[in-house]
Amino acid sequence: MQMTTTCDAEMTQDKVLANAMLVLPDETVRGSVVIRGDRIVAMDTGAGVPNGAEDCDGDFVAPGLIELHTDNLERHIHPRPKVDWPHQAAIVAHDAELASVGITTVFDAIRVGSIINGPNKKYGKYARAIATEILSMRDSGALRISHHIHLRAETCSETLIEELAEFGPEDRIGIVSLMDHTPGQRQFVNLDKYEGFIRGKYGLDKADFEAHVAHLFGLREKLGVAHEAAAVVAAERYGAVLASHDDTTAAQVAHSAGHGIRLAEFPTTVEAAKANRAHEIANIMGGPNLVRGGSHSGNVAAIELADLGLLDVISSDYVPSSLLLGAVLLGQHWGDMAKGLHTVTAAPAQSTGLVDRGRLGVGMQADMIRFRVTEGVPALRAVWSKGVRAA
Length: 391
Prior knowledge:
Elements: E1 15-23, E2 28-36, E3 39-45, E4 54-55, E5 60-63, E6 65-70, H1 72-77, H2 87-100, E7 103-112, H3 127-139, E8 146-154, H4 160-164, E9 175-179, H5 191-202, H6 206-238, E10 241-245, H7 250-258, E11 263-265, H8 270-278, E12 282-286, H9 287-292, H10 302-307, E13 313-315, H11 322-334, H12 337-342, H13 346-351, E14 368-374, E15 377-385, E16 388-389
Parallel strand pairs: 1-4, 1-5, 6-7, 7-8, 8-9, 9-10, 10-11, 11-12, 12-13
Antiparallel strand pairs: 1-2, 2-3, 5-14, 14-15, 15-16
Helix pairs in contact: 7-8
């Protein structure tokens, strides 16, 4: 990439990060970055430290991380069963946690589609209210990082269509993902694993669990096809990117491709990941899967897809800190830190049409992180969002 020469920081009000290992899209180079306002205005190579610049002492300086699918906000809203934490406080805490681990852009995953008549496991609608609160706090400047909305469309639910109708183009929905959590397929092909997960999480006895499963099968048979079609139409109306979820077979991927899917969240098999690549659908794998060395559900390991050249994007899913750690682990595994960081910066930006972030370059938004790697683990030193120190 083309570099421009920096001048002494003392001559301007610019922020200069010097003597850093700059993580560029295809390489890492020793150099400096100049921030003016919310933009990168100059870059240079070399280890020099201009007057007034911050000496990064060889630390990595990379673009801020971009998170496409995280359930972390729900954990703050419901820290315990039956506890509904004050939403504005939960959003602020969620925002601060993401900033603290280097995430500067997030697509907050919010469920649309509720079960209100289930025999044992019920959950009500909340998406419109939470989205309104997030957008209001974002617009008021209360949040440290950039927040976008990701609607998780539960096709096997009772209220999906009416909940989708509560959103429009003015909400600037970034992603709509098609979710089918009916047991016996996709993430939970193994019903025994699903039973262990659900009964352990919600305290259901055997009879309650069987009634719950029967209800889900009934919803899928009655509403699944119509709800999936409605979600696809809604995404087009919003101008959102469409994502599939937990595709397992090539046939499922072909079905997804027919809808215009561009992102595949957590494919569960090599077969599905290969089919996604053939259809030019980006494969997203979980940071926790990568860090732990495998899937907690018994599905394909993220590192296996990485070794096959089939891993495009990492999502932190339910552990925000796994995003940077996973990218660094990949960089070490591949012997190419730029390639590892690409999965959490440029790749997710490209997948969602964010042209002003995801890479270091003149004119780009000044979303950046500074970190060093100690004993194989990234230690974050600083985070900037739109040129302002966020952590």
